[in-house]
User: Fold these one by one.
Assistant:
Number 1:
Amino acid sequence: MLMLDGVGTMHSARQGPLGIARRCVVHLMAGLCLLLSSPEASAVDIKTIQSYAGSMLTPLEFSSALVLWQKESNWNIRARNGSHVGLCQGRSKYLIKANYKQQVQWCVKYAYNRYGSIALALDHWRRYGWH
């Protein structure tokens, strides 16, 4: 007897433990292939981005950036939220193609130009939920 499972895969109703194990392996491998081909898998490691940001900021500014950019993008340089993109969710088309170093530099300049520092940008974010 043949049956369809929840995702439309046809299989025998009497598979037994070996059939179930095979099906699990197939599904796990398919999921792994999808994961490895995702843009996040080929993205720059978070620690690399944080190390670069830490090298250009004071400890206070870096600790503020750690919190702010975690909330904004989870340190994902390809993050999107409507028209906002990148590490600090800026509204610049430049950020779409910018690498992690360019994004960190842009985000630092933005925070300093608009708020005076990243710490003040974080204060604004805490007060209003955006920066």
Number 2:
Amino acid sequence: MVNHTDALSSWKLDKADWSAFSEACSHELNIDNTHTGDDAIKNFTENLISIASHTIPKSKAGKRTVHTVWFNSSCKDAIRSRNKALKRAKLSPTDQNIDNYRITRAKSRRIIRTSRRQSWQSFVSKINCRTSLKKVWNVISKISGKKSSTSINHLSVSNNEITSVPDIANTLGHTFSNNSSSQHYTDKFNSYRQQDEKQQLRFKSTNNET
């Protein structure tokens, strides 16, 4: 069956201007512009979303069409006939047209139920002890018309695709470490840091509690 569900707008990552995005992040999301306090995370998130809104296009919110695996040509023809009968009954609501619409509607429902049942029976007959749970749930989602979420399963670094989970984790860790490196500190921040590091730490406590 073809279902029409509400679809939220999403980022079109394949059409993003990543050069402009990176440049804007370097200027806007640095230590000098970073807010402190309880709203630090909120301000950072708002700035990041603002940058993305100017450099990454988004799809329009609206209706999206979900196709199910059991929706075949018979279902399509049955729905088309039902819609024609409904339109005829609305334009000319005679007893004959209304009865014809009811018969056509009942027929389309029967065809859809049969196709759905046969699709489910065909799937169940192929399940065995070697069938993975992932495959089972994927097929169930397709039969029910649920859209599976798209996951990011690789990284692209210097035109090289990184696909294994350990390599992805190591690449992300290296990137985070590099971005947090002292070589990215501004001269102003380094001046404050060096001045504070020269102060001798006092570990003697003045707490008189026992």
Number 3:
Amino acid sequence: MKSNSEAPRRMQHPLHPFLAHFPMGLLMISSLWDLLGLWQGESMWWNFAFWSITVGLIFAVLALFAGIMDYVKIPQGGPAEQTAMRHMMIMIVAVLLYIGSFMVRYRDPFVTGNMLVIAVMLSATGLIVLLVGGWYGGELVYRHGIGSSDRQIQMQEEQH
């Protein structure tokens, strides 16, 4: 039996979940660097945050394309499609917030004053939105079986 997603795969796994962990991890860790920068006042932490956001956004673009390829394979009109649309829209908002933070930091990762407050607030808000979007991504996998084998989906349906 074929799986419910025929999106590009490597070793029989969908690419989107594989790629999504990199931007989520990098973007989330940038908030830790921001907190350490606020606490210690050392420019090294702002540099770490800037590069975590930069690389996270690059991987987010790759994850977005893989996610769109998975999305078009989801049966239209069902609850999985609704959840996928919520996931995608929320993650786009999160990425836009991090792009805003990147733009504030672009000329100089060691921002100060009001620009520092704006950069950190954009990242902090992005983190909250990212976590909500990640939860919806988990719903797609664990509740709707997106990216799972047909046998796993059948087992989930038998339990409900």
Number 4:
Amino acid sequence: MRPTIVVLIAAVLFVGCNTPSAETRAKEQLEKMKESIPDVEAAALGQKVTAEQVKRAQEALTKSSEYLGEANGKLDAVTVNSIEAFQHAHGLKGDGILNEKTEALLQDELAKK
């Protein structure tokens, strides 16, 4: 009887040692969640737009006080963040993509004054 109890206790301890801790499981879940979230900024930075489109957008964003950098036609993180802020302010999805609606609103901004 005693050897059976010892074997059972040893088996329980062995199984208990091999299961991941709550902290390990939480870290694994966090990593899975991070992987499932799309990288919006990377998508915006990778969009196919011309330097002229970006420069016009930067000029309009400057006029609307959303962009403080130089209008140089380079699509960088500051420009993308400014586009996102402009989109949010105008009721659009803030994804940083220069789509038709965003460009039209930016052109309206340039036409003011």
